[in-house]
């Protein structure tokens, strides 16, 4: 899928839809954009083995999916309910 860079305010709705369609194909990517999957907070030094294991799983998932959200040298993120770049 090839998406032309946004060139003005009039292109915004179409560009936004195309970006969301593109990210929909990458499992979990929209969860980052929509704020469902967030970067995990660092664990305290006295965390348990189970907490460290869970942290690692969430962290790995976040890193993988977050990579899909970096589009055309810009970072797509959510602000006030809208995707911005």
Structural shape: elongated
The succession of helices and strands, N to C, reads HHHEEEE
Strand content: 5-15%
Question: Looking at the chains present, what oligomeric state does this protein adopt?
Answer: single chain
Overall structural class, as computed from helix and strand content, comes to alpha+beta
Low-confidence stretches: 72-85
Number of helices: 3
List the strand order in the largest sheet: 1-2
Distance between the termini: 18 Å
Give the proportion of residues in helices: 40-55%
Total strand count, please? Answer: 4
What is the average of the pLDDT values?
Answer: 77
- Biggest sheet: strands, sense, closure? 2 strands, antiparallel
Cα Rg: 16 Å
Topology of helices and strands:
Elements (H helix, E strand, L loop, with lengths): L11 H13 L4 H5 L15 H20 L1 E2 L2 E2 L1 E3 L2 E3 L1
Antiparallel strand pairs: 1-2, 3-4
List keywords for this structure.
85 residues, alpha+beta, two-stranded antiparallel ribbon, 3 helices, 4 strands, 45% helix, 12% strand, elongated, disordered C terminus
Task: Give a short overview.
This protein has 85 residues and is an alpha+beta fold. 45% of the residues lie in helices and 12% in strands. The chain has a domain at 10-36 and 47-76.
């Amino acid at each position: 899928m090839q998406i032309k860079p946004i060139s003005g305010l009039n292109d915004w709705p179409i560009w936004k839809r195309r970006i969301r369609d593109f990210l929909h194909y990458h499992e979990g990517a929209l969860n980052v954009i929509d704020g469902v999957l967030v970067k995990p907070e660092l664990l305290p030094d006295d965390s348990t083995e189970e907490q460290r294991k869970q942290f690692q799983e969430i962290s790995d998932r976040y890193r993988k999916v977050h990579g899909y959200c970096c589009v055309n040298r810009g970072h797509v993120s959510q602000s006030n309910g809208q995707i911005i770049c």
